[in-house]
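Data availability (excerpt). The following record was deposited with the supplementary files.
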Amino acid sequence: MYKQQFLAFIISGLFCMIVILSCSDSSTDPADNNQENTVTDYDGNVYKTVTIGTQVWMAENLKTTKYNDGLEINLITNAGEWSADTSGAYCNYNNSETNAAIYGLLYNWYAVNSGKLAPEGWHVPTDDDWTILEDYLITNGYNFDGTTTENKIAKSLASDSGWNNSDTTGSVGNTDFPEYRNKTGFSLLPAGYRGYNGIDFEMGNYTRLWTSSSSEIMFTAWIRELSFKSVSVERKIALYAYGFSVRCVKD
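Predicted structure:
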């Protein structure tokens, strides 16, 4: 009798566990997972995100026309007005909204320095944020040749399409080492940039991205650059008046 009661207890317990697991599975909405992998800006633009190491990054360039408090960012199409602006502005490459839909918008550093460009809970990366990303990729085998020293990570961050061709081994524009092309899912596109004189350059060849960190030289800030012919992510400085792309990272 005791054996029968014990067996009934075991069967009852297993049945309850099955019911609980079944309910748990049926209540999982795929949209919940998608929501965790996207972020929405004040304009309502939805961006894919990617987790790399301990960081969560946008996997697309920012394209908001409003700060995260709802205030409109100044759109400047005139070259002379662009070079003179110090209040924060954005533009479309060649003033084409079609380009913006693909590559995102270009912002001057005054917009970045507002502290309100990124969606709530996110921020424009600092120079240190980028260094953390780069160090993680280098030491975890994202160099195109599988090494874990030096900076050869550009190919792993760049989209596998859209870049002009290069015959430099391991470069972004070379189709060699296919297993490393956009290995991170970061999907950087060659968005080009706007010069401090208001003229647009280098779509297909370059992408330049702002950090929120000013440099020691007046009116300049740290940026990151990818070139179609380079194997590395370059750390440079640029005048505040340039128009560059922006990727945001989660707080």
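Summary of structural features: Residues 1-35 have pLDDT under 50 and may be disordered.
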